[in-house]
Amino acid sequence: MPELPEVETIKNDLNKKILRKKIIDLKILNKKSVKPNLNFFSKTLINLSITKIDRIGKLLIFYLSDRKHFLLIHLKMTGQLIYLPHPCLRLPAQAGADRLAKERELNSIIAGGHFLEGKQKITGIGESLPSKHTRIIFYFKDKSILYFNDLRKFGYARIVNEKELVNLKKEFGIEPLNKNFTLDSFKKIIQGKKTNIKAVLLNQKFIAGIGNIYADEILFAAGIKPARQANKLKKSEIEKIFKATNSMIKKAIKHRGTTFRNFLDSSGKRGNFSDFLQVYGRAGERCKKCRQGTVKKIKLAGRGTHYCPVCQT
DNA sequence: AAGATTGTTGCTTA
DNA sequence: TTAAGCAACAATCT
Fold first, then answer.
1. Which of A99, A117, A189, A257 is deepest in the core (most CB within 10 A)?
2. Dihedral sign, Cα of residue A82, residue A83, residue A86, residue A90
3. What angle do CA A217, A188, A312 make, to 5 degrees?
4. pLDDT tens figures, A130-174
5. What does the pLDDT read at residue A214?
6. What is the pLDDT of residue A95?
7. CB A264: neighbour CB atoms within 10 A?
8. Distance A171 CA to B10 C1' (A)
């Protein structure tokens, strides 16, 4: 479930890898993965290059060299963007003693997904590329390839013009990494909402980028029950949630995101923040913080919600 | 084998 | 008028 930290990781990596490389061909294996339609999508992208990659919430924005169009990619639940530097890379003999190991690593993604650390099977990955979940393939002039994989076909790649982009941006709330994400702006959002705090954190129109995993983790760190009514939270409690949001997002980015089901970064690697999760996915287990409560799982805002009934109040 | 999984949209209800 | 709630979507796993 790519949320802000996962999408940010992909954005940062791809910004180092694919800029100014000409797109010479496209393969669209699932029509519904591209918008507005297959023909326009291909016709627009071919012969262009990507000049910059941006992100708003969980949405990736690729600036294109025609300066008129933008490629938006949303990974939704199971989307992956995996970049293959070269389909058949061979390093020169003078590359050093570990040349073969390096080559193997660079090429293993083709050989069958052995690039995965460990042998843990994760849905939709661990396959050679393209896989049965590959929906779009971008071919660059330097022979490198970008794969858009999406097991559940929820994600999409969409071409928009500047006006559409501007209108779309308006739909998003404040960005946790932006300067305007202040305690004051956060307070204003929370205090005006009658619904539960988890639903507020999840709503992209209020705060952009938080999804189900980080919502649970943030509220756990803040010691607040997810079902608490937002406008009834004390100032001190809002401050705790604000601080937890800030540190959680930053720490998760530092560890390259969370792989719970099938998130992979642009090299096909897992996110390490999974090791730091405190409540998400721990239903029935002892609370890691107070060591008294047992993590409970309920349904809130239509989502599985984990919390400790003892130390979250 | 039904129910859970989640991000977003669009519809309904309050 | 606007906020809030909920089904729907997709494909798999438990």
1. A257
2. negative
3. 30
4. 888 899 999 999 888 899 999 989 999 999 999 999 999 999 999
5. 96
6. 72
7. 26
8. 15
